[in-house]
Amino acid sequence: FDEDYLDPDSDINKMGRALALGGELDDFTASLKDTFTTPGSQWQYVSIDTHVIGMVVRGATGRSVTDLLSEKIITPMGLEHAPYYVTDGAGVAFVLGGLNLTTRDYARMGQMFLQNGRYNGQQIVPADWIAASTAPSAPTAEGQIGYGYQWWIPQGATEGEFMARGVYGQYIYINRADGVVIATNAADRKFREAGVSDQNIAIFRQISAALGGT
User: For residues 206 and 212, what is the distance between their CA atoms, to the nearest angstrom?
Assistant: First the structure.
């Protein structure tokens, strides 16, 4: 799955065209047959894998991801504004992206993870899942950014430092030692250029240190 957003012939842009014509993301996902290596032998992030997780969740529960997210996360947290979901031709919400929240509500999600899954006085996500999901468990290349269960772990991360990272430079950065959460929405077409991500992380760390005093 070629995820070069700036290449019109990449798989991610073929997916976009299929959906623009009313296609279903499940069908597009199931049509992908090629592999670049033996399964389990190499790690590579691709968004379509996250959609597969969504397919599994829907199949296991018999419920939509939006209903589950509303019941388990959105309603207990009490966000300021209702989320807006991008959906395919069948009305099925994306899981690989397309969850639109205000920046303040993205920050609330980060705050909940900062607090080990607690928010509004209740345990919304189990603390052991928070710990497992934010640990660098994926076999990424040495010296490269780490990855857990849908969370990124920067190079040289301190204990409790992790982030969500989206296309075009969107982030939820969490630094538990400093007690800091930084959420950014962005539209940076140069987000994949060399050094841009490292620069963003360096800025987050400087802000975090200034606020947290470390």
Answer: 10
| 71 occurs within a structural domain | no
Q: Return phi, psi of residue 149, to 5°.
A: -100, 85
CA distance readout (Å), 55 to 12, 16, 47: 18, 18, 13
List b or e across 180-213, with b for residues whose CB sees 16 or more CB atoms inside 10 angstroms: bbbbbeeeeeebeeeeebeebbeebbeebeeeee
Q: How confident is the model over 14-72, as pLDDT tens digits? A: 999 999 999 999 999 999 988 878 877 788 888 899 999 999 999 999 999 999 999 99
Find the distance separating the first CA and the last CA of the chain, reported in whole Å: 41
Question: Which amino acid is residue 205, in one-letter code?
Answer: R
Question: Closest by alpha carbon to 18, among 89, 87, 67, 69?
Answer: 89
Cα–Cα distance measured from residue 98 to residue 47, given in angstroms and rounded to the nearest whole number: 11
Asked if residue 100 belongs to a domain, the reply is no
pLDDT of residue 168: 86
Asked whether residue 15 is assigned to any structural domain, the reply reads no
- Residue 183, beta-bridge partner list: 172
Residue range(s) defining the domain that contains residue 201: 134-214
DSSP character at residue 157:
P
| Number of compact structural domains in the chain | 1
Phi, psi for residue 100 in degrees, rounded to 5: -100, 115
Cβ neighbours for 101, distance < 8 A, ≥ 6 positions apart: 79, 81, 83, 109
Q: Which two tokens stand for residue 45?
A: 């992030």
